[in-house]
Amino acid sequence: MVSEDAVGKSSESAVSTIVNFADEAKLTNGGVKAPSHALLSICKSLVAGGVAGGVSRTAVAPLERLKILLQVQNPHSIKYNGTIQGLNYIWKTEGLKGMFKGNGTNCARIVPNSAVKFFSYEQASKYASALFFLFPSLVFYGFIRQQPGNEEAQLTPLLRLGAGACAGIIAMSATYPMDMVRGRLTVQTEKSPHQYRGILHALSTVFREEGPRALYKGWLPSVIGVIPYVGLNFAVYESLKDWLIKSKPFGLAEDSELSVATRLACGAAAGTVGQTVAYPLDVIRRRMQMVGWKDAASVVTGDRKSKIPLEYTGMIDAFRKTVRHEGFGALYKGLVPNSVKVVPSIAIAFVTYEIVKDILGVEMRISDG
Questions:
Q1: Is the pTM here over 0.85, yes or no?
Q2: What are the TM regions of this chain, as residue ranges (predicted)?
Q3: Nearest of 318, 331, 269 to residue 291 by alpha carbon
């Protein structure tokens, strides 16, 4: 039960929070912020997020392509047998161009995705406490901030998880068709049933031949997967930074600042935790995206006689058929190259975002570290 004291304090906090948000919308002289100033700040934040996504994804493009190839290859005709062998095979058969195949499409998707994701997280973090305080049941009281009543205190890991999940869902949904065609462009070869010439051609072809719903195949497991993945990324990254700054173990933090190397390590830890939890859903999403693409399995293996089931009635059916025909381990195909990819990718994205925002002169929000 929540005491009357707690209810009173939470009500005061709610009023205080709302008043603070209203004050933020005003200048110190009592005027209202110029729309152009607010728009410029939003644009800078979006640019920082977009640059972070583009830089981080390009840095690990070969590993990203190998991960997808491992996820969808025919188990009866194995061509890619691990990270080193897989990268060597791509290099020998397709050269440098093959290592970065699909990266242009990937960046075209990840740049807006990253921009929306970081911006959405900042906004969700900014207003989350006010939204939670407005719940009459006060069920979430005590989970809002680490120090209730102190509005300058950091958000709790639980709230960061929620804000990150919201940001991930918004960003993923807004750019999902790009991810769908990126997967197909990545796995296509000269023997592919379709030869997509680029992003727009792939989008128009899928839309025309398979219908608009095909652009969102695998969306459900993506929504479910993005909750722990993006949510844990933000929660682990910010919480780990806060802990390092407060406890200063091994002298890693000086004057409430962390070095670039330390922040990269925080990002690596965050990426590792998030992707390990959500990886099976990523595999299922990728396979569902290939449904409807005739002989999709042969795109990777060249084996057109394969009996691998490619028709799924939904996410649960995709899980069931994958485990039944290939075993539970199939849900983690490509995990090793993905782990090698995620560690630097997430780390680079977080640090690049903070650096670019600092260069552009935008007020920091991610941990304010």
A1: no
A2: 127-144, 156-176
A3: 318
